[in-house]
Amino acid sequence: MPIHIHHHHSFEARCEVMRRLEVLDRKIDLVLRKEDIIMSMETDALDQAEAAAAANSAADDSAEKLLITLSEMVADLKTHTTDPQVAARITALATAISDRAAKLGAAVVAGTPAA
Length: 115
Prior knowledge:
This protein is an all-alpha fold. The chain has two helices and no strands.
């Protein structure tokens, strides 16, 4: 009884599998590059938001210091005047400064998210 052994190699199938693997590899690389770009954009946006918050905080601090200094100056003026008209103007100025300080404080509170 003769024994026949058939051995078949399919180089075409191997080439097709390799070609498809290379295509998948390129697509995965593209997805990873895009992910890096997106993450970089998010990081940049966060950096800009943090810088803006720091600038706003510095501006708020400066405004607060200015209002306190103005209030102190107004109080000092009021204690050194004897003219009723000047005293009335100083009182009006003090009220305007106080109102502005309250408005600024309310704006800061309104713009601050709850903890």
